[in-house]
Every structure is written in C-alpha cells, then in structure tokens.
Design goal:
4-stranded antiparallel beta sheet; globular
C-alpha cells in the first residue's frame, strides 16, 4: 500500500501530533480508508497510507475544511454563533440538541463532545471547556476556529503537512505548538504583548484532531479530558506513538487507552513493543495567573517500546 510521508507533522510536538490525527479524521470522513503510523526516527513524523498522493490528500483536507465552514457546530445559534466554547447551561443543552438533529450528526456531535460536557460548569454556570482550551481574555476559541477556516487555503494545508513550517502568519493560534512556549521568567519583557506567529494550517488540522479526545463530567461536576490529568492549572497531556498503520477507529482506542495515557503508563517495554508502541510522551500544561492562558511545556518520554539504545527525543526548542 502506498505511503505518504507527512514530514512536517512531528510526533514529539503536540501540535504536529494533533494535526496528524485531524488529517486522518478528515480523509476518513471523505471516504478514504486511510491509516496513520509514526516513524522511529530521531524526530518521529507521521506516515499516512490509503491515499494516492499528497495532492489528493490536500484536496480531501480542503473539502473537509470548506464543509466545516457551514457546520451547525460552528454556526450555532444561527445568525449569532457562539464566540467561545463556554455557553450558558441553557445554550449548552440547545447546542447539543441542534447538533444531534443534523443529518451528519455523528461528525459534529462527536466533535462537540470533545469541547464541552453537559453538567460540567464553572462557578458562573458556564460550560467548562476541554483541558486543551488554552485561550482566554480577548481570544475567543470558536471565533478563532471560524477565522482559520475562512482564511487558510490549500497552500497553508500543504505547509502544515509537508513543511517547512514558515511561522509567518498572524492568524489565530491555539498555543498547542510546544516550540511556541514563551516563559516570562526567561525573557527581558512580557512575551504576552508580542504577536504570536504560527502555522495556521496545522492549527486547523489540530482542531480537527480534538475529536479523538472527548470530555466528560466528573461526579463532582468538574470536567475530565481524555489523556489529560484532571487538574486545571497544572495538568499534562499524554500521547502514544505507534509503528503499525492504524485506521481511525484503532487510533481512537490507542489515544484513549488508560494503560498508555495515564500519569504512569502501566505497560512494560516488551508489552509496548508487542502492541507496536514506539513511545509514550507527556507535555505539561501550564496556565498563566493573568487570564489563564495555556501552553505546553517541553515534551518528555514516559515509556518506550524501543530497545534502550534507540530511545531518543530531540529537544523541542
């Protein structure tokens, strides 16, 4: 089966990893029986199979993007869509009901379940969003998603999957790029005042990848996000890299397997190797005290299915 190297989507970077998942979900939704795996290079990158070439991949990704621009999930309520994934209790129920009533309800309802959960609210009875919601203040998550949809094109999607990442765009960024962490203590001036330049095609595909990470209400009324530690201020995101070509349904199971994505992986190296798992990684989630803006810290390897002399993770700078 022909394979396509998505060389810009690096498995050691949460943005690259999520974007690869988003690309897999998008092409599967468009009828392609695609699979995804990772190389065991110094810096692992994504390999997709089941699709003829990069041009066809980009065509499918662009079709998916355009259809999402018309989606009920991103255009609710009609005429005055939500700006952020923090609706009131009444709005949240109506949002779920409206999305579930759509003909393509499974596509968008699954994604909605990765953004918010009924019954999980903050102190103001607003919906508590996914732990991967890093925006705050004037940054409005859903508004940013819509801006990306209508601003990127096939060239930006090619940059995202094939590279090189140019970091020349001032379009919205969700702060999922581990290279983009800006720590005030290490800078002469407050970095929050600087305009972040990013890779908008990768951000869009990574938003699509959120569908693999549903959220749910905890017994205490808080929110739990798949593969994230429960704490909000100081959490962490965990993810595996695998060497066996895997369909969307298989990937769905892998990235939610608690033996892999809990604080301490429960499988030994030989067990990981038997499952085709190259490594299990973790990136800390940090939120500022001023406004709650989030970012990923430097990733680290928690467990590996590779022989000891093959375990390596290039520093993300």
């Amino acid at each position: 089966m022909k394979e396509i190297a998505l060389s810009a989507l690096e498995g050691t970077n949460p943005l690259g990893f999520l974007a690869a998942l988003g690309a897999l979900d998008a092409v599967t939704r468009k009828g392609v029986q695609g699979t995804l795996r990772w190389t065991d290079d110094l810096v692992p990158h994504a390999i997709m199979s089941g699709i003829a070439d990069v041009d066809l991949l980009l065509e499918k990704l662009d079709q998916d993007r355009q259809e999402w621009g018309r989606s009920v999930l991103l255009n609710f309520p009609n005429g005055s869509p939500l700006r952020d994934a923090k609706p009131s209790e009444t709005q949240l129920r109506a949002w779920f009901e409206t999305v579930n009533a759509e003909q393509e309800s499974s596509t968008y309802s699954n994604h909605l379940c990765a953004l918010v959960a009924e019954g999980a609210y903050d102190g103001n009875r607003k919906a508590k969003p996914t732990h991967l919601h890093f925006t705050a203040g004037q940054q409005q998550f859903l508004e940013m998603v819509r801006t990306l949809i209508f601003s990127i094109d096939r060239d930006r999607l090619r940059e995202a999957v094939c590279g090189p990442w140019r970091y020349d765009s001032s379009l919205p960024s969700f702060s999922w790029d581990a290279r983009g962490e800006r720590i005030y203590a290490l800078r002469a001036a407050n970095p929050s005042k600087e305009k972040r330049l990013g890779v908008p095609g990768a951000d869009w595909l990574a938003f699509r990848g959120l569908v693999f990470y549903p959220v749910k209400q905890t017994p205490g009324g808080s929110l739990r996000t798949t593969a994230c530690d429960d704490e909000w201020k100081r959490s962490a995101f965990h993810w595996p890299l695998w060497s066996v070509p895997s369909s969307r349904d298989v990937v769905w199971s892998l990235v939610a397997d608690r033996r892999l994505v809990s604080k301490q992986p429960r499988l030994q190296p030989d067990q990981l190797a038997a499952l085709g798992i190259l490594s299990v990684l973790q990136a800390p989630i940090r939120r500022s005290d001023q406004g709650g803006y989030g970012s990923f810290g430097a990733p680290e390897v928690l467990a590996s299915g590779l022989p000891p002399n093959r375990i390596c993770l290039q520093e993300v700078s």
